[in-house]
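Narrative progress, year one. The postdoctoral researcher (J.K.) led the effort to move from monomer predictions toward full complexes, under supervision of the PI. The following entry was the first complex the group processed end to end, covering 727 residues in total.
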Amino acid sequence: MASYIEMPKLSDTMTEGTVVKWRKALGDKIEIGDVIAEVETDKAVMELEAFDEGTLGEIYVGESAKAKIGEKLAVLVAEGETAPPKSHAATMPQKASAAAAGTVSSPKVPAQSAPVSGTRIKASPLAKKIATASGLDLSSLKGSGPGGRIIARDLEPVGHAPVPPIAPPAPAEASRRIPLSGMRKIIADRLLASKTQIPHFYLNIEVDAGELLRLRAQINEQLEKAGRGKVTINDFILKAAVDAAVKVPRVNASFATDAVVEYTDVHLSVAVALDEGLVTPVIRQAQKKSLREISEAVKDLATRARSKKLKPEEYQGGTITVSNLGSYGIESFSAVINPPQAVILAVGAIVKKPVVNARDEIVPAHRLAIGLSADHRVVDGAIGAQYLAELRRLIENPLSMLI
Amino acid sequence: MPQITYRKALNDALAEELAHDENVVIIGEEVARYNGAYKVTEGLWKRFGDKRVLDTPISEAAFVGLGVGASMLGIRPVVELMFWSFAYVAFDQIVNNAGCIRYMSGGLVNCPLVIRGPANAGTNVGATHSHMPESILANNPGVKVVAPATAYDAKGLLKTAIRDNDPVFVMENTLLYGESWEVPDEEYLIPLGVADVKRQGTDISLIAHGRAVITSLKAAEILSAEHNINAEVLDLRSIRPLDEEAILKSVRKTHRAVLVDENKPFCSVSAQIAATIQEKAFDDLDAPVSRVCSLDAPAIYSPQLEKLQLPTPERVVQKVLSIS
């Protein structure tokens, strides 16, 4: 009895996947739980395991080819059974019964049923109300609720803007066309939605990082003696971002159409650059973690993000984001909010430069520029300033983060 | 604030009302000399005497009828049922007489009667002793029904029930009698028909009454700790009159509701709440209204199975996840 291996839904935003590599070859015996292939989703490369046993009889989707969720990728057959070709596979039940009845099967069967016009759209009453009020077309949305129902969160200002697309550039002779990876597409959708739908405003401060550098050197000396991993400047900044968010909870929040939701926990998203884009893995309940625990968590997440070993739940549910381009030599920048969060911190490099001190002397100092981008629907300028003031206090008195 | 048991809170309410109004009397099986089958009336006979605390034969129809008649003449009887399950032999007195007299007398005769006692399953006392008749009783216009979940609510609601001029039925729970909550020393009353938010939340409304409130609070802790879902727990406290505004307010905030109800699902209190929500808050719903009720069978005699028959925190969590 043939059993088909289909493209699974591996993340909640996935609509199609790419077969990166087949780990098994035609004729291989497959046991339940064997890794058959590697599949790239919009977020990560994941291993595809067999749910049935059998012999790999036919591969329908080759390496580097894309397939929609549910599309047949391959077939497992029993001993001595011949694998059906893919076109046959897609319509096997009908064809089989037609053949049994001795009639001539029609030469062409539509591969996939087109959406029938007049099909009822499954949407919650609240989603319908929001859609009507904001003039959105529900048929253009994909539901994330149980059974594919469109629910309110599908209409939140995250990637579903009815924004007229900017016309693609006319092809030039020397241009190179790079098809979008799943990750690139998500970045494009989400950040376009963020920048067009969230009223961003920006605040900038420069803090004295001298004490932070001294304390870090002192701690790392101790850690080195103890043979343990060092803590980075960024670990301190992450800890400060979290502690300050506990003090000013309004920044750890989301705009939710008819309310502002302040989160109890600080789930810290940390931007990690990859060759082909970036991801923002989440340190959960970061307010309960010490500097060391944050340091270890971020190292682990970054390592696994780079090897694409993150599980989908590990980059979902963040409530506030820190992006640090200091190690790239960027002194200061403004970041785009990671929706549905309300703020993102943009952290630059520590730069040695002359400053005027309290005695009006020009002295060298280590300065760190930090930018805050905030959603004005949730956070006002004064709240953003309070948050940055708390952040400054923590970074300039870093010992307070250790107790 | 002192912590006292649900049982003591009821006892205090009775003692305060006996002292407050000489027309208040207690009637029931073993309520006087034996101090009550579940010791809710402990010490009251000794303190207030034969005229105020009255032992009766095992004859619910007779002594509920006694209470109805006495109430029509201005006495404020508090009738104890050893189990609300035994109300069924006195149904004519409870529904036809107590429930209808004000209407049928054109408003000339009141019936300030309280009937109270445990109405719960989960104690291995068999199907005929485990009924929860609040939905059956609340179905009758003319009566009031309350179901306190905590000692604080038990005391405040019982005192208000005794002072009310209509028949009020108080649904207690033997599994809660020994549980303690903070109850102030000062006198207080809780109005009938006012629900209470026992836990503030933003993501889903768990709406319950009686012990199901405690189950919901446990489920809310699990949802918060393991699933990052911030559930609101609304305690109805009073089934009839029903605080519809509180229900609608909570649902309009969270856009989702799971109704937790120790009733059997068919024609239960939660069925009424579900109907109310979809009639009056339809456009605020982001998910179908769901219910976690007792399994639809007579109270199961096997203790292990009976525990599973009642709503558990785990079942509530599963139901919430299924619509999230």
